[in-house]
Structures are given as structure tokens and as C-alpha cells.
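Propose amino acids for all 214 sites.
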């Protein structure tokens, strides 16, 4: 079967797993609709620039996948393993990332407006200049993550941070509190205290309470 093209696009590098290769080739040939990649192994593939809007990557293995400048609008990535993946400038608007693994993922310049991130392991994630406006960040582990120059807008921000979390240039507003981990212990930080902590790290984020919204 020819690899074909999909609106002039083809993968720079196909995955190595046979079932994933077959599914991707079929989807490219059809040329319409979302990709059904539920539970498949796409690790190490380079899918940069592809239009995967409204696709299903639920529980998929996406370790070290390149999705640079890819379109994933309204896709389901719940439970997917994106460890080490590169999603630089990727569109993740309204994407479901609940229970996903984002360890050491690169999301620099990515658009996560109104995305859902519940119980996400994002330790070591690179989120420099990432747009988080309106996204739900609940139970996200941002220890050792780089959130420099990221942008928020009244986001639910019940996340875990540590002294290695970078916040220089981060802007906007969030609804805390967060869990701040230090030397094996954790304490809750919210309100003016959290604002001050972020400010001391070079960020400028207003911490609002639910009662003050609107």
C-alpha cells in the first residue's frame, strides 16, 4: 500500500510498531476524519506538522514522538504516555490529557487553551511560553518543570511545585492552592503567599479565589 499523502502531508518518520504503521497508512489514504490510535505504539515516530484534529490517542504509547507544530484540536490523549515527546508549538486546544504522562515532554510555545489536565505527571516538562488560558490543571505534578513565560487566565491550578520549578516571566492569574514540595515534605501554598512565592521566582501571576472570579 502506498503511504500516500494527507492534504500534502506525510510523516517524516513512521512508527516502528506494525499495527501503528498500518493504522497510520490507512488513515493517510482515507484523507478525512480523525486518527484512531487508541492503545497503539507510536513511539519514536516523527508526525510533525500533521493535522490530527479530533483524533483518539487514548492510552497510546507516544514516547519520544515528535509532534512539532501539529494540530490536535479536540483530540483525546487520556492516559497516553508522552514521555520525552516534542510538541513544540503544537495546537492542543480543548485536548483531553487526563491521566497522561508528560515527563520531560517539550511543550514550548504550545497552545493548551481549555485543555483538560487531571492527575498528570509532568515532572521535568518544558513549558516555555506555553498558553494555558482556561485549561484545567488539577493534580498536575510540575516538579522540576520549566514554566518560564507561560500564560494563564483564571486557571484551576491545584498542582505540585518545587524549588526547581521555573516561573520566570510567567503571567496571568490562577486559582490555587498548590502543593509546594521541599526536602521530602509538602505544604499547601495559596493566596498572597503563593503570589509572593511566584514573584520571588520572577513570575507575575495573580492568585485569585473562586469567590473573586468574574
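Proposal:
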Amino acid at each position: 500500500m502506498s503511504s500516500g499523502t494527507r492534504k500534502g502531508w506525510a510523516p517524516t518518520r513512521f512508527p516502528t510498531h506494525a499495527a501503528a504503521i498500518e493504522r497510520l497508512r490507512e488513515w493517510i489514504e482515507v484523507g478525512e476524519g480523525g486518527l484512531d490510535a487508541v492503545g497503539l505504539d507510536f513511539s519514536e515516530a516523527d508526525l510533525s506538522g500533521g493535522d490530527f484534529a479530533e483524533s483518539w490517542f487514548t492510552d497510546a504509547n507516544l514516547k519520544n514522538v515528535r509532534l512539532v507544530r501539529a494540530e490536535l484540536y479536540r483530540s483525546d490523549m487520556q492516559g497516553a504516555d508522552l514521555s520525552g515527546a516534542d510538541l513544540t508549538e503544537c495546537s492542543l486546544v480543548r485536548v483531553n490529557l487526563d491521566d497522561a504522562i508528560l515527563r520531560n515532554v517539550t511543550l514550548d510555545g504550545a497552545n493548551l487553551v481549555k485543555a483538560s489536565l487531571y492527575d498528570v505527571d509532568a515532572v521535568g516538562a518544558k513549558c516555555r511560553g506555553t498558553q494555558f488560558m482556561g485549561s484545567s490543571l488539577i493534580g498536575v505534578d510540575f516538579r522540576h518543570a520549566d514554566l518560564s513565560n507561560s500564560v494563564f487566565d483564571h486557571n484551576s491550578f491545584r498542582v505540585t511545585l518545587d524549588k526547581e520549578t521555573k516561573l520566570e516571566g510567567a503571567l496571568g492569574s490562577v486559582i490555587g492552592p498548590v502543593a509546594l514540595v521541599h526536602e521530602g515534605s509538602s505544604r499547601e501554598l495559596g493566596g498572597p503567599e503563593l503570589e509572593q512565592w511566584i514573584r520571588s521566582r520572577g513570575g507575575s501571576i495573580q492568585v485569585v479565589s473562586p469567590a473573586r472570579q468574574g
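The mean pLDDT is 94. The helical segments are 18-30, 191-199.
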